[in-house]
Design brief:
Glutaredoxin; two-stranded antiparallel sheet; seven-stranded mixed sheet; alpha+beta; 27% helix; single chain; 9 strands; 4 helices
Length: 179
């Protein structure tokens, strides 16, 4: 069953490159934490996507949102991705267990060899997912992909946060009754 808005998300404790251990339950942003799961160093689309998140992380912070990008890659490959995008603001988590990826509703793919940028895909890795988790640990927004393409736009999210906060807009998609 997918994660449901207004319901608790699974626990998420993960090592980061330069910020110690990330524990979602210990995050204390004013509004929410933006958790972005990415495919890994082998994905050129992820690098472009995370560059935009890096650029907008201060804008998210102004709106009470902390950010983190996480993959199942190990520390070395994750550091290479952080360096590739020039990360200065965005936290990077690494070593996401694929069992935990599935708890979050992420899809898992098998490696298909060397990518278009000449980097070997891992044997198994998770596909992208973007989650906005409220400070109380409940899901506010989620987008999960089976492919590296067509992801939510971070600039659009920044604008939406202004509307959401101003209007106390509730999380949507929570209904689980009969239809």
């Amino acid at each position: 069953m997918p994660l449901l808005p207004r319901q608790p998300v699974p626990g998420l404790i993960i090592d980061t490159l330069d910020h110690g251990t990330f524990d979602l339950a210990s995050e204390a942003p004013d509004f929410a934490t933006l958790v972005v799961f990415f495919r890994g160093l082998h994905c050129p689309i992820c690098a472009t996507y995370l560059k935009e998140l890096e650029r907008l992380t201060p804008d998210f912070a102004e709106r009470g949102v902390t950010t983190i990008a996480i993959s199942s890659d190990g520390e070395e490959r994750t550091r290479a991705m952080a360096e590739k995008i020039g990360a200065a603001n965005l936290r990077f988590g690494y070593g996401l267990p694929l069992e935990l990826a599935r708890e979050w509703g992420l899809y898992v793919s098998t490696g298909r060899g060397t990518t278009s940028i000449g980097i070997e895909e891992p044997e198994l890795f998770s596909e992208p997912g973007v989650f906005l988790v409220r400070t109380d640990g409940t899901l506010y927004f989620a987008s999960v992909q089976t492919m590296p393409f067509v992801r939510p736009h971070f600039q659009e999210m920044v604008g939406a946060l202004d509307f959401v906060r101003k209007n106390d807009y509730p999380a949507r998609g929570e209904y689980t009754g009969a239809v």
